[in-house]
Amino acid sequence: MPALRAWPDVTPAALVRLSVRACGQPAQPSPATWQHGRVTAATHSTLFPQVPDSADAVLDGLDPEQREVATALHGPVCVLAGAGTGKTRAITHRIAYGVRAGVLHPSSVLAVTFTNRAAGEMRGRLRQLGAAGVQARTFHSAALRQLQYFWPKAIGGSLPRLVDRKIQLVADAAAACRIRLDRGELRDVTAEIEWSKVTQTVPADYAPAAAKAGRESPRDPAEIAQLYAAYEDVKRERSVIDFEDVLLLTVAVLQDRHDIAEQIRAQYQHFVVDEYQDVSPLQQRLLDLWLGERDSLCVVGDASQTIYSFTGATPDHLLDFRTRHPGATVVKLVRDYRSTPQVVHLANGLLAQARGRAADHRLELVSQRAPGPEPVYAEYTDEPTEAEGAARRIRELIDSGVPASEIAILFRTNAQSETYEQALADAAVPYQLRGAERFFDRPEVRKASIALRGAARFGGNDSLLDDVVDLPSQVRAVLSGEGWTTQPPAGSGAVRERWESLAALVNLAQDFAAAKPGATLADLVAELDERANAQHAPTVQGVTLASLHSAKGLEWDVVFLVGVAEGMMPITYAKTDEQIEEERRLLYVGVTRAREHLHVSWALSRSPGGRPSRRPSRFLDGLRPGSTATTGRTAAGGAGGIERGIPGTRGSAPKRAQRVPARCRVCGRTLTDPGEMKLMRCDDCPSDMNEGLYERLREWRADQARGSGQPAFCVFTDRTLMAIAESAPDDERELARIPGVGMRKLTRYGADVLAICAGQSPAESTDQD
Q1: What residue spans carry the region label Disordered (predicted)?
Q2: How many H-runs (helices) and E-runs (strands) does the chain carry?
Q3: Which of 78, 140, 658, 661 is the most buried (most CB within 10 A)?
């Protein structure tokens, strides 16, 4: 393994270029089973749902397209899913159905996505569907796990330390190069290094690669290349790696060690990739190596939600999927269960004037909800006044009964947050800046969990619990010792955030007790442990403040889109057509976060008394009242539906036998019991077996067993004989379809069995032959 053992002397990007060294080594549902009114909201589920009691029950409530996704268990499958159409619902039900039907083994499935929150949500949903044990991870998490396991075998020793943040290393590299960088430049140079690595660009190739990609370098490209090379030197000297190295080194190991690649492929037989429009070239390379020559792959994405191209993400892999996999099944989800028709109309209108390849493949959403209020457009003299207006309206909504957790303020840059934090604090409105994916890592939550666990074990000796009987009261009593009070503290800041975390646990206990009467404190602790493992966080009560980029994948009843003015949306530095279109898609993502109420606002100047030189974003032209539509072509929207693949176009790779869900030939239920699968019917469904034929087969089997000196079941089991007697096959093809009749037994016993089924004796069959 000299190439990989020399890893400290080459950049990780170069490792990807290592050559591989030879080692020598489902049935369609009846239309009557689905109605709009029975489909639950795409991203909603009850807090503690009952696990479906069968594989078929997993499919209940899915619309026709979602059901098609769920039952298309053999790849390649491409799901084009518009915002709010239930993509997570469709793919988690697909995995769960495959597991519950016995087609997929939980440990053989790897579902990958892009954030810990999304992976945690997926694990939580799979657990609720009875498919625990499926691996749902981010690309980095899955790669790191494999790298840690195989590093001693591939390289030797332990894996170098992984650094969480690279900005200090970049600063040290700049100092070594005698280049002074301010805080903003440090951040920009770090971003360029990250982009280079995920696009597999080595330092020497940075300048031409950046020019080809149309990137505006924060400094002279030659300086960026110099800093990039120095950064790699610093890492090698300190024996550390960064997050991009995790992917690069995993790719290098899988390329260079065929035996390790085959070991991983033997473990994972089926792959699901969420948010496929966001994969980088490096992530696609890793996915290809995981797959090998197989095509058991389901990808899900929406080109109209491509908003991370600055990090190296590209929708090309999604848009080219049918080209790479001509046999793929493509399912389009366009039924929007999240947003009202008014919100959906605005979202569709935003993309109607879009240009570019992603726009050519946009999906025309169709709202499935009842009509709601029209979006509200508001113009303010300056940004502080805009923030005060939003805070005032939010205060009114909360006073009218809207939960603070169902309201969000979304902005283009994080720098806009401070003005809104102050305005909300002045209006006595609780808010949160942190995402739910880190909830269980918060110190106050960890301490509260320890306290609850202790109370569950030794509560009989805790005086706090002497006078409480029900579960919510017990939790309130325990958490009162950790700082929870019946009334929130005044103001904002860290004290308020700690209280909100504890209040979320109190609310969870109330919901848990209501859903599961008789539940104990120990039951709640077990639920918290499972939620922590799945990163399935409870809701924190507070208005969410978030950038548009960080809001991806989230939703609220009420959304305030603020600062929607030229220079901010699109952002000033968006110059090229591609950059402008990405800004349009970013606003589209913001609009589609709203379920019912949408407020869009902008300010004419930044500061009070400033010159009112700003104007509303061009993206609102023709959509907001009193504006004129921008001229230009209108993109054609795509309708929902299913496109079947072209049979026999998988290439030269040998086609492996595929398992499909076995279904009862009487009632149509999915069969999971091996005995029922042999009969191809439920045990309690009526049998049409020919009793006389069954007895003749039993007599013949006894003769065969005596002649060969083996037990009768070694010839055919009772279940297999029953299946033969029920189906009475006419030829070898029909006989071979019966479970338990393999090729060896077909060759040895096929002629005899077919003769008996035809009313002849085996001897007569032989004489006639």
Answers
A1: 604-659
A2: 31, 19
A3: 78
Angle between helices 471-480 and 494-515 (to 10 degrees): 160
- pLDDT class of 7 with cuts at 50, 70, 90: very low
Reading the block at residue 623, the tokens are: 């959509």
Q: How confident is the model at residue 55 (pLDDT cuts 50, 70, 90)?
A: confident
Sign of the alpha-carbon dihedral angle for 198, 202, 203, 205: negative
- Mean pLDDT for all residues in the chain: 83
Q: What would the mean pLDDT of 208-219 be, rounded to a whole number?
A: 85
Measured at the CA of 163, the angle between CA 162 and CA 164, to 5 degrees, comes to 115
- 672 a known binding residue? no
Residues whose CB falls within 8 Å of the CB of residue 760, separated by 6 or more in sequence, listed in order = none
The response to whether 454 counts as a known ligand-binding position is no
190 is in an annotated binding site: no
How far apart CA 268 and CA 107 sit, in angstroms, is 7
The dihedral built from the CA positions of residue 678, 680, 686 and 690, taken in this order, carries a sign that is: negative
In the structure encoding, which two tokens stand for residue 667, read together?
A: 């009632």
How do residues 547-585 score in pLDDT, each as one tens digit?
Answer: 999 898 889 999 999 999 999 999 888 888 888 999 999
Sheet holding 135-138, edge to edge: 135-138, 109-113, 270-273, 297-301, 77-81, 329-333, 641-643
Q: Is 82 annotated as a binding residue?
A: yes
Please state, in angstroms and rounded to a whole number, the distance separating the CA atoms of residues 745 and 68.
Answer: 36
Q: Considering the domain 376-437+542-620 in this protein, what is its CATH number? A: 3.40.50.300
Interior angle at CA 63, CA 657 and CA 320, nearest 5: 55
Instruction: State the amino acid at position 18 in one-letter form.
Output: L
CA distance 88 to 611: 46
* Strands 329-333 vs 109-113: parallel, antiparallel or unpaired: unpaired
| Amino acid code (one letter) for 546 | A
Is 83 within any annotated ligand binding site? yes
Q: Is 332 annotated as a binding residue?
A: no
Q: Domain 55-142+248-333 is of which CATH architecture?
A: 3-Layer(aba) Sandwich (3.40)
Find out whether 459 is annotated in a ligand binding site.
no
pTM of the model: 0.73
Tell whether residue 567 is among the known ligand binding residues.
no
